[in-house]
């Protein structure tokens, strides 16, 4: 299933998509990574772009944008699954988030679809600090969030990608949900302290109330959908319900997940927090 049937990767340049793509190619699989900026184009908001991207595809890695927690995600995903099925797709691997009602509804849409399926349900990513909306704050030396002492088992996107690739390439893992977290519970302040210690420079963590935080982001130009999602993440996902580790990485790969300190050393060596490397949006 290599040259004739490329594995579709939705979210080409995303934190996980780029890793899934690189790993599959390194193993000799043909891939078709897609997003709004590829040919063929794939846009979640433009269903007529889905069929061309699915041509000749039997398997796909599906990362939804912006988040399965969004109110319209389940409906969009159901429509996508039906399009995929009608074009002969046999197996979908869906990236999901923990503790989100919308994500569970979307997972169920896939699990009940009759297609071969996997769900990789992940905790907050390590790479939010190095490749995403927290990066600029880390570089600036001050991270401000509406989160206190809640502990989160942050996970490495390299582990997520390895689990997704295992699911795509090993049929014995099919029809299973892998709930993947890192090996330890950390607060945002503890993460920042670890980055600060390893990088050897002062980075401060400040907690602020939610409403002024969202008000500030509204002034910065975030739209109502983006603000809704942040409210959902900071009130639902980070209310303590996810403060436990799970063993999805071991279950899929037979080894423990990577530690945050190892991620920080690698990210630092790769220049993740050097100012010239960063062009990230807020979301
Ligand atoms: N961050 C976390 O801590 C976390 C934790 C658990 C689960 N998740 C889930 O992870 C998923 C995001 O995955 P990720 O972090 O790997 O991706 P990401 O880094 O958010 O990257 C977004 C990717 O999606 C593409 N994209 C943006 N808008 C799109 C659209 N309308 N249609 C098609 N593609 C679009 C972008 O490329 P273009 O700009 O070229 O389109 C880019 O390739 C979300 O579903 C989220 O719920 C995230």
What does this structure look like?
The chain has 283 residues and is of the alpha/beta class. The chain has a domain at 7-123 and 156-181 and 244-258: Rossmann fold (3-Layer(aba) Sandwich), CATH 3.40.50.720. The protein is built from eleven helices and eight strands. The chain has helices at residues 17-26, 50-54, 73-86, 101-111, 135-140, 157-169, 188-199, 210-219, 224-237, 248-253, 260-269; strands spanning 7-10, 31-34, 59-62, 91-97, 116-122, 142-145, 176-180, 204-207. The strands form two sheets. The protein has a six-stranded parallel sheet with strand order 2-1-3-4-5-7, sandwiched between helices. Helix 1 (17-26) packs across helix 6. The two termini are 35 Å apart. The relative contact order is 0.14. Residues 278-283 have low confidence and may be disordered. The protein binds NADP nicotinamide-adenine-dinucleotide phosphate. NADP nicotinamide-adenine-dinucleotide phosphate (NAP) binds next to strand 4.
């Amino acid at each position: 299933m290599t040259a004739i049937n490329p594995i579709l990767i939705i979210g080409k340049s995303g934190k996980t998509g780029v890793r899934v793509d690189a790993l599959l190619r390194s193993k000799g699989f043909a891939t078709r990574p897609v997003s709004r900026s590829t040919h063929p184009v794939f846009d979640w908001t433009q269903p007529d772009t889905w069929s061309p991207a699915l041509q000749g595809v039997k398997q796909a890695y599906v990362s939804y944008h912006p988040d399965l927690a969004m109110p319209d995600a389940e409906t969009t995903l159901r429509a996508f699954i039906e399009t995929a099925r009608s074009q002969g797709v046999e197996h979908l691997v869906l990236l999901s988030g923990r503790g989100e009602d919308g994500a569970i509804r979307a997972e169920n849409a896939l699990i009940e679809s009759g297609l071969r399926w996997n769900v990789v349900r992940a905790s907050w990513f390590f790479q939010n600090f190095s490749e995403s909306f927290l990066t600029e704050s880390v570089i600036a030396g001050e991270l401000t969030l509406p989160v206190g002492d809640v502990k989160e088992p942050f996970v490495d996107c390299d582990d997520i990608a390895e689990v997704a690739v295992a699911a795509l390439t090993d049929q014995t893992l099919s029809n299973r949900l892998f709930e993947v977290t890192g090996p330890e519970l950390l607060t945002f302040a503890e993460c920042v302290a670890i980055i600060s210690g390893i990088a050897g420079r002062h980075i401060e963590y400040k907690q602020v109330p939610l409403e002024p935080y969202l008000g500030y982001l509204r002034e910065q130009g975030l739209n109502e959908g983006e603000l809704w999602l942040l409210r959902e993440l900071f009130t639902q996902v980070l209310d303590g319900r996810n403060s436990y580790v799970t063993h999805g990485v071991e279950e899929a790969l037979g080894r423990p997940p990577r530690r945050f300190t190892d991620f920080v050393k690698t990210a630092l060596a790769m220049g993740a927090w050097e100012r010239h490397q960063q062009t990230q949006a807020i979301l």
